[in-house]
Design a protein that fits this description.
Layout (H helix, E strand, L loop, with lengths): L25 E8 L5 E9 L4 H12 L1 E6 L4 E6 L12
Antiparallel strand pairs: 1-2, 1-3, 3-4
Length: about 90
């Protein structure tokens, strides 16, 4: 593409998009429960949001149910069947 082939933009601003491999990391607490709702294992992780899914899946396969919370106790995900003794999950 030659320099003369560029069309004039209606806006004087140029927006450039760059791809990066930068991952934003957070602290998570993953809690695994058995079918009775008793805590079996707790793991604290510093990772990206997509990495907690693998850990939750593995813990739910091992114990029955796993959920992830961030540092402000906000629900970030779950795997498995939630035990009735834990009650309904309140999303807020």
């Amino acid at each position: 593409m030659a320099q003369g082939d560029l069309q004039k933009s209606p806006s004087p601003f140029i927006i450039r998009v760059y791809k990066t491999n930068l991952k934003i990391m957070f602290d998570y607490k993953i809690i695994a429960y058995n079918k009775l709702g008793k805590v079996q294992e707790t793991e604290n992780l510093f990772c990206s949001p997509d990495e907690i899914n693998d850990v939750m899946y593995t813990m739910s396969e091992q114990f029955g149910y796993a959920e992830a919370l961030d540092t402000m106790d906000t629900h970030c995900g779950e795997y498995g069947e939630r035990p009735l003794s834990l009650g309904e999950r309140r999303y807020f």
